[in-house]
Design a protein that fits this description.
The chain is of the alpha+beta class and 179 residues long. It contains four helices and eleven strands. The N and C termini lie far apart (37 Å).
Amino acid sequence: MVKRAVPMSRAYRLLEPGPVLLVTTVARDGRPNVMPLSWHTVMEFEPLLVGFVMSAGDYSYGLLDASRECVLNIPTVELARQVVGCGNCSGRTVDKFARFGLTPRPAATVGAPLIDECYASLECRVRDRRLMSRYNFFVLEALKVWADPAVKDPRTLHHRGYGRFMVAGETIKLASKMP
């Protein structure tokens, strides 16, 4: 196998964890917002902690910083156009729920809405802010998790950079000693 050097500006494409999330937040006036996000990682299982990077210039960053809560919604491939559309405009000037036909549903524990069309949603609060000022890194704790039991093998989107996505495909099961 012959390998070539990859420009550092494109190296992240090799590590993108996926699946793409639709992060919902809410403004002080009650107006919901949604943005796609793919830079995230599970940090702990119980309690479930999720870390992610969000640009400080994003409208959602300010909303999340102010409210300290959000919902991580997991879309499937059927929402690909809405995911990309939400990423190509700003909630400062656009009602993304209306523009892209997404349905907000009240959450049980946070003010931000669930997205009805997503197969799963995690209601979260910011648990740790120490890495925000230096790295724009949020650490969230999931408070309530919802999933459609009819969706057995979701075909989620995985960002590859520059408008390219992979779709989760075949599921295989291998022997494991994990519970």
